[in-house]
Amino acid sequence: MPTKRTLIFIALLFLITFSTIFFIKSSNDHKECDIVIKKELDTNGNETRKEEHVCKEKYSF
């Protein structure tokens, strides 16, 4: 049977992991992000459309 110290360590590890994931999900709001649409012609002369996600944030998760 695991000791009391081991159970506390596992509980704290789970709590820290859950808190970190929650913080990343809640703070990544993409308010400063934009979608850029580029139209180009391919080799056959067909018009292609490319969407690109551009973020001004330093870190984007």
Description of the structure:
- By secondary structure, this protein is of the alpha+beta class.
- The protein has one domain (4-55).
- The protein is built from one helix and two strands.
- The protein has a two-stranded antiparallel sheet with strand order 1-2.
- Strand 1 and strand 2 (47-55) form a beta hairpin.
- The chain starts with a helix and ends in a 6-residue tail after the last strand.
- The mean pLDDT is 84.
Largest sheet: 2 strands, antiparallel
In whole angstroms, the N-to-C terminal distance is: 39 Å
Count of distinct structural domains: 1
Tally of helical segments = 1
Structural Rg: 22 Å
Category from helices, strands and their pairing: alpha+beta
Give helix % range: 25-40%
Low-confidence stretches: none
Strand content: 25-35%
What is the total tally of β strands?
2
SSE series: HEE
Query: Strands of the biggest beta sheet: in what spatial order?
Result: 1-2
| Shape by Cα distribution | elongated
Mean pLDDT comes to 84
Features:
elongated, 30% strand, two-stranded antiparallel ribbon, single chain, 1 helix, alpha+beta, 61 residues
Overview in brief:
The chain has 61 residues and is an alpha+beta fold.
Produce the secondary structure layout:
Layout: H1 4-27, E1 33-41, E2 47-55
Antiparallel strand pairs: 1-2
